Amino acid sequence: MRPVVCIVGRPNVGKSTLFNKIVGRRIAITEDRPGVTRDRIYAEAEWLNNYFILIDTGGIEPYSDDIILSQIKRQAEIAIDTADVILFVVDGLGGITSTDREIANILRKSGKEVLLVCNKIDTPKTPDEIYEFYELGFGEPIVVSAGQSLGLGDLLDEIIKKFPENKDTDYEEGVIKASIIGKPNVGKSSLINNVLGENRVIVSNVPGTTRDAVDTPFTYKGDKYVFIDTAGVRRKRSISENIERYSVIRTLTAIERSDVSILVIDATVGVTEQDAKIAGYAHERGKGLIIAVNKWDLIEKSNKTYREFEKNIKNTLSFVTYAPIVFISAKTGKRVDKLLQIIKEVYNSYTKRISTGVLNDIINEAVLLNQPPTDKGRRLKIYYGTQVGVMPPKFVIFINDKELLHFSYERYLENQIRLNFGYEGTPLQFEFKEKGD
């Protein structure tokens, strides 16, 4: 387990900006509006060869009756429970507020290591206003300007001093990363909550509730996973807020970071053009893909319902016929265990490597069963093939003339390799080279 550092504070004190500066890239949404960072955001960070997990949280408003704001408070409380070190961020120029005092009370009750961070101090000289923050009871405030990158080295030095000695600060190997993708309100967050058995992400029937990509680590049957829950991707004409634009970019980033993408489809709506577009993102980036049809418990079924729905998916998503389809209900938990089993199987395909000798036996057999095409008396010759990569599996096949290679024969060779080696759920990449290339 790596140490966990959590950033908390009231809205608009610069928590997300500080988060982005520490992890070194723009992950959290930074916009001067309360409630923009709605869910916890996880990222890996490093300072002087000390690796840790950094969590950004939404701004805490203890006195609000708003449903979303109250859930933000709950999310922050869960993050505090998870953390080894807490960064309590305040506005160094704005002075102490009643909300700051209430958050300080919550943190004192947690019993965790707390560093008080006075942000937005853009000058080398410490202003007198800083000293009133001693009243909060967390010792000497650490003065920084996240926007100007001032004081961050001193802050990070203090953070790593607080790490517990029994925590491993190195990276973990072999974690299966699965991004949960799909349109808004199809049940992505509900699926994660069902797997975890806790309300780790905000669940609401309002489309667009999950705006940030949330990394959720868990273990299942001895294997380590990270679920990356993403904001739903809307049609372009539906995107009006800057925040929603960030969410589309984040979905693409989440797919990029993952090994396997799980496309969640609403069974009550059916497969749509937008689902095809989202699946295309994962396919183009060479990621493993699973199609999870959610809300299956709400469908009236007959003997033909399952087959007709599956046929419709395969017709609409004809470019990803390798993707397994599983019908689930995140609400009741129906076949969620099956989905987890398929994630492991797809990951095994995604990382599978075949020896050159066995691969060429299959290629030679395929050539005998179906002779390569000819053109003007010249026939395509296949000399040999070799696998050169995984994640996704990539093959190089040497031939005599690229101009003789038809797309249909390339697809035939791919189908023969899939038939013999499985490769369910993963795209395969082929590069054909002439001898001497």
TrEMBL record:
Keywords: GTP-binding, Hydrolase, Nucleotide-binding, Repeat, Ribosome biogenesis. GTP 2 binds at residues 182-189, 229-233, 294-297. Associates with the 50S ribosomal subunit. The keyword Transmembrane helix does not apply. Belongs to the TRAFAC class TrmE-Era-EngA-EngB-Septin-like GTPase superfamily. EngA (Der) GTPase family. The keyword Secreted does not apply. It holds the Pfam family MMR_HSR1. GO terms for molecular function: GTP binding; hydrolase activity; ribosome binding. One of its GO terms (biological process) is ribosome biogenesis. This is GTPase Der. It comes from Anaerosalibacter bizertensis. GTP 1 binds at residues 9-16, 56-60, 119-122. Residues 3-167, 176-351 form the EngA-type G domain. The gene is der. GTPase that plays an essential role in the late steps of ribosome biogenesis.
